Amino acid sequence: MKKTLISWLSLAAGSLLGTAYGAMEYTTDASTVFLWHMNESSGSVITDSSTNGYNSNDGVARVAGKFGNGIANAGVVQFGGHQGTLVNSSFTAEAWIKAPAGGWQSGLVTLVGMQEFVSPWGHNFYFGIDSGKPAFGFYNGGAWTSGTAASAIGVTDDWVHVACVYDLSKPQWNRAVYYVNGVLVATGGDNLDGNPTGSGYLYLGQSGASGVSFTGAIDEARLSSVARAASELSPNLVPEPAAVALLALGGLALLRRRRN
Length: 260
What we know:
alpha+beta
């Protein structure tokens, strides 16, 4: 009986741990500014899963995404004139992306951004890739502040999760941290000043002003008005089967201990 139970627990733990950890789609919470799954199979609509309803009606090219579908060669995708807001707030900006066929583009390309068309002109917020490095910037009410990770993301054919977390509770020199595939790759180094104070029209794949489109693919873009922990990022989320796997491992360890 013990041998049978041990065998079952070993099998359960092994098979479930194969899928226990890994990337997952997000669900919304009170801190979600927008969440774009991009899973629509056709048509022009990109639906915001947050309660803010920041939907787009611009035409997009659908591709196979990290989860379900994504979009490629986004161009200027404006979200129906919707204005997002980041005011005196920590934030986390993130997305799954795939590099263009020729590698990361030279210079800054915006993945998601907010742009106002009144003074001060230009971005009120952006999150993007600068020559392969995660980057962001925002208007703080009196000046522009921005940061860039120290090292570039390796070029790969796989989907890559990139995230920037800006935490107002930390000192200026250590407010921004960058993650690639859920792993911390850079922290500090940028002397970032002030709080985000702007709102603006939402864009995906390009800002309304730069004229430079991200020519790779994008999926599962999320902006949050809180500094997310690493455990909350998509690559680090634990699906429900993990709980069963951990229980099986615990039972297996207990039985083996009793046998000894």
